Predict the 3D structure of the following.
Amino acid sequence: MKIAQTILGLALLQASNAFVAPGLSNARGVSTRIFEEVEADTEIRGAAEISGLTGDVEAIFDTEEVDAAIPHRYPFNFVDKIVEYVPGKRAVGIKMVSKNEDFFNGHFPGRRVMPGVLQVEALAQLAGTICLKMDGADPGSIFFFAGVDGVKWKKPVVPGDALVMEVEILKFNKKFGLVKATGKAFVDGKVAIEVKEMTFALAK
């Protein structure tokens, strides 16, 4: 009976320690406080103000409209919405990077980083939303990567990041269905990736 009471007491002590702040204990080593007080001069902006930072950024194409524009689907669709769009010329789109992405299971365990090649793919998909709406792109057409040049990665892209991408069409050869584009993407206003030139081939 005494052994059972001892085990129960240890279990309760462990459970109580799971909810207390470290470094706060009495003479017997038992924690006496659950939360530290927030200092009065700590600046709290609040959810409403932080959310409002993007209040004037409206979606030109929401996620369903993006799905209607390109053939890519989960888990290989990397454009969540488009916020700026000039037909046949340029677009700005956003990819919200979630820790639930399949590729994070292996890249890398313990230090999740969005693979650089998938950042290039995200830019290519954004370019595809322009290409597949251009004159000469028949309904049901798809586009293939034909080449990429001048790729530079500037900073890691990790879970929780909003990857804000911009692509611009440089050339379009309607006869052969070839498109050349350039692009870059930002996280928190800093360049994450630059691509000097991407080449695509449109196919039915």
Strands lie at 81-86, 90-96, 142-153, 162-173, 178-187, 190-203.
